[in-house]
Amino acid sequence: MQSTDPIDATDHRLTELEIKASFNEDLLDQLNQVIIRQQQQIDALLRQVSQLRQQMPDTTSGALRQPGDDLPPHY
After folding, report:
1. pLDDT band at 74; cut points 50, 70, 90
2. Which of 38, 41, 42, 63 has fewest C-beta within 10 Å?
3. Which of 2, 22, 4 is nearest to 14 (CA)?
4. What angle do CA 68, 73, 60 make, to 5 degrees?
5. What's the N-to-C CA distance of the chain in angstroms?
């Protein structure tokens, strides 16, 4: 006859829950680090886009030009 002690079963369940909680904490920390890196990348990309926009010629003075508007010199 095998008898299971309720205290041992409770201790085992508690230990399993503690292990799962520990893994969840580690996973959450890893995900937070990923989010931090992604936000840094987004910030860098936004800075680059801003710099590129500043380098673009001013198109507000006239209509947008089409690629075929300028004819090559031999025409």
Report:
1. confident
2. 63
3. 22
4. 45
5. 103
Report the alpha-carbon distance of residue 28 to residue 58 in Å, rounded: 46
Task: Report the alpha-carbon distance of residue 2 to residue 23 in Å, rounded.
Answer: 33
Residues, the chain, total?
A: 75
44-66 pLDDT per residue, tens: 999 999 999 999 987 655 556 66
pLDDT digits (tens, 9 = 90+) for 24-39: 999 999 999 999 999 9
- The Cα 43–Cα 22 span in angstroms is 32
Structure tokens at 25: 């904490």
Q: State which amino acid sits at residue 18.
A: E
